[in-house]
Amino acid sequence: MKLFALAIVFPIEPSASDGGFSYPEELKPVIEFWDRETWIHPLIGEPFGPWLRKYTLKIVLDPTIPPAYRAVADHATHVIYWRPDMPNEVNIPIAAKAAIIVHEGRHLQGYRHSCAGKDGYDTSDETMEEGGAVAVHVIFLEHFGLRNWVEYFKQYVGCGR
To answer: What is the CATH number for 47?
Structure first.
């Protein structure tokens, strides 16, 4: 029997989030996109803005993020660390940037990658059905018609691919 990589993570305590969700000014268009979006993602089941704020205290720009990654989630602090060059990257559509946040937010919700990808690191999910970070990312991209991005991220479904 396969055990999926789901960590038990609880939403941020209301007292911890009283200071308000924060993010760099460079990400304002992406966050505004999230807050305006009315589509309910089938794996999330609620509007994006409240869902993101339920699991994320803040998003910060971090120049130490390796080029192979766009962002990383820190489960212990409920922080998403974002590469500084990403917010202003003109070749990445705003919906694709928002998809990166949904991916990292899913990690903060407790869904870890379930297996190693071709890079040898735990960057893949065994299946779409497990509903992890890759699944929410791909479904989000599909909804917004970003086919090239969908094909790129599907490489992260399946172990050792």
So the answer is: 3.30.2010
